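Side project, low priority. Logging it here so it doesn't get lost.
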Amino acid sequence: MTRRRLALFAWAAIASATTTWTAGPGHADNATSRARATPVTATWAGLPLRQVAARLAEIGGIAIVVDRRLDPDRSITLDISAEPLDAVIARVAEAAQADVAPYAGHVRLVPRGGAAALAAAEQMRATELRAAGASLRARAMRAATCSWEDGAVPRELVARVAAEAGIEIDGLDALPHDHFPQARLPALTHADRLDLLLAHFDRRIEWRLRPGPRGERPMVAIVGLPAVVGPASPALHGTPPRRPGKAAPPAGGPATYTLTVAAPLDELLSTLARRFGLELALDGAGLARAGVAPAEIVRLELKDVSREQLLDAICAPRRLAWHIEGDTLSVSAAAR
C-alpha cells in the first residue's frame, strides 16, 4: 500500500483540557465552541492536505482526521483572513472535494456523500448509549489520550482500545488489513477512538451487549455504517449569493434553493449564512431556553424553496425564530 492510501491523523498536543470535546455524543461544550470559532489567518499555495489538516488541528487543539480514501497529498491553495476554524475546515474540504463530518470528539474529512452515514451513526450511538447499562456506558465514555507509531495496524489499535475500555469486540477479525501513519491524539472517549478508527472502513461499534459467558468482559460488535442517502454537509443549489457590498444578481425571479442535509444545527446555519452572504449570530442562551442543542442533527430534503422557506423549515420545528438585519442572520428562541 502506498503512502497516498494511508489515513492521515492530525493533532495538537496541549497541556490544558480547554479544547477537549465533550463525552456526550453529538454535543460540544463551550470550550469546544470557542475552539471551533478560533480565527484563522493563513495563505496556502499548493500545500498538501495532510499539512493543512495538521496546522488546523494545532490551531484548534482538536483531532482532524483525513479519511484513508482521500489523497493526503492533494494540493490545497487558499487565502484566509480571520475566518472561524470551522469555516476554514469547510473551505479545505471543498478544495479537497470532500465532506466534513463533525463528531463529538473529532472532525473528519470524508469522500463526497459519505458524511450522512457518519452523522446517522453518531445519532445511533447516542441512542444506544442512553439505553445501555451504566457499566457499559461508563466504559464507552471514559476518556484517555492515544498515540501509535508509523505503520500501526488498525485491527491491533481497535483491540488496544477495547482492552483499555474493558470490553470484548465481536467482528474484529473481519476488519480489513491496513497501516496507519504515526499519530498523537488529544484526550478522546473510548467510543470516539473506536469511531475514529472504524469509520475508515465504513464500520462502527453497536453499543448493545452481545450474549457471552457470565463474568467475562461485556461484548459489543462491529457493524456497518447505516445506509443513508445524502451528504451531511449541505448540498445546496441555487443562484449565487449576494456578498456584502456587491450588487445583487440579475433580475429573473427570486432565488430558489434545493437542499439535502443531515448536519448539526449550528454547522448548517453557519454554512447557509455564508451561502447567503451573511454573518451568523446564533443565540446560545436562546437555544438553551428552547431546549435545542447546537449540535442537534437536522435532516432535511427541500426542493426549489425560497431562502425564507428554507430557514423556516429549519427553525420552526425547533421553536426558533430567525431574522435578517443588514448583513446578519440572527437565530434565537421564538417568542412565546
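Brief comment: The chain is about 30% helix and 30% strand.
Revisit when time allows.
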